[in-house]
Amino acid sequence: MTEVYLRRLSRWQAEQQRAAVADVHVTAYRGEAGAEYRDRQGFLDRFEQHVQRLGFDMMVADAGGLVGCAYGFRVERTGEWWSDFRGELPTDIEELTASGRTFLLAELMVLPAHRRNGVATLMGERLLARLDTDLVVAAVDLERPEGEEDGDRGGRPANAAQATVRAWGWSKLGLLAPHSPSAVREVWIRRPLR
After folding, report:
1. β-bridge pairing 57-62 and 135-141
2. Which residue, 24, 171, 174, 186, shows the most beta carbons closer than 10 Å to its own?
3. Spatial distance between the Cα atoms of 140 and 161, rounded to a whole number of angstroms
4. CB under 8 Å to 78, separation ≥6 — which residues?
5. Distance CA 122, CA 50 (A)
6. Where are the beta strands (DSSP E) in the chain?
7. Percent of the chain that is helix, strand, coil (3-state, to 5)
């Protein structure tokens, strides 16, 4: 396995690397055949907005080319990010958001050939290590093998992202349920150690 180097990118560097980051995204999340262009363009549109967000921070893994990426930003104080949360949002989460002390881990992706080597964990640790926040959140897509229901897993995570945040010791807070039932995501949280 090629040695992997981690480096932090400034907002300007992230914008300069957007094509390479989009390549990692498309390869890491291979969707349905023929959807690569749409997936890539959708990611680039989101990435362009994310880079401009308050507190944007990014870590990449490089092995002679990008092999992974993790980035995020502060959740807006207005609480708009939580608007699709199912149920009642705990008061302390609302307060941390309103005080500007909540960071969203927006993307964590690693090329398939570099998975299971600790790359995601290293990027996540380095990205989150210098944060001055009291809460980190991540929204994880609910991907299940065809025909499998929630109860069929026996408590096991349904996908790699769920397995990763669980292995990192994060806690599941609830669900975000936007307009489409297929877009439901789990919300996981971590309170940084002080």
Report:
1. unpaired
2. 24
3. 6
4. none
5. 22
6. 5-9, 57-62, 66-74, 102-110, 135-141, 171-176, 185-190
7. 40, 25, 35
